Fold:
Amino acid sequence: MYAAAWLPIAALLTQVLVRGGTIGWSEAAAIVVPMCLLYAFICQASWYLCNAVPLRESDPIRLIASHGTAAAVSAAGWVVAGGVWAWLLGAAFAIPGIDSRYVAQIPILFVSGVLLFLIAVAFNYLLIAFEASQRAESKALELQVLAREAELKALRAQINPHFLFNSLNSINALVMTDPLAARRMCVLLAEFFRGSVKLGSEERIPLGEELRLADCYLDIERVRFGARLKIERDIDPGCETCLVPPLIMQPLIENAIKYGVAPALQGGTLRLHAERNGARMKIVIENPFEPESSTKRGAGLGLKNVKMRLANLYDGNARLDVSQDNGRFRVELQLPCCGN
Structure:
């Protein structure tokens, strides 16, 4: 492609020599075409000069001196090589006076050589700038991915300590009043963390696995609340193979129990619902709601963590909606449903 780009230049220079009035079309073409092919390789050296004299890091005097000198030297060498070629043509094909007629065209050829070299310099600077822009864009994208991964790891790391802190407080409360329940809660807590460590290292897990983790957590809370905690499940079987971020439901269920069931003297019912609609999936978590406890809800990390994880993982293609109505607090997750 680069060599082909020089063909129009060769045609233009051929016409210039012909218009000089001393060289015919065939003679001009025989001289100019090989000269242009030679100069195409000579001009490639401007790439190294452009890298040695960066455009933004060099002062104008250095730029003009470096490229002006290189253009003049290259053009002079090119014109001399053309004179040798014209002499060889005349000797080989018995073309009388072609070398002297070529000499008459040296000024225009020299100026053309300087301009062509400077055009090559400008093109190479554009190419260097484009490659630098591509590298910067690639680096920025790489840093963005690394920052997103670091943020996701930090958010995930916040969930387990937060849950562990609350669970240990519950165990502490049960030690004196119900030691057997406290012991059972410790066993369930170990099982939960064993499962969360295994699945938490994955980027996505099937919803069925996430629900099993949620059930393990709910078993822990049942030890604490007994009959006060009731669970209603309505899970579409088609959702269980959809991939979700691990531990995406656990902080929401934890909030539902902490701010919905726990404050109520009679406890309450926690409802879990999941349904699939084509390529989308909806997960709903509902719990009883007491208005006087709503001011405390902002202290939890659950909703904030889930929102941030969804924003980072799905780039706006997932939503978390919160609503309160008729004494019920409702959290709705809408996610793309991707199979494993």
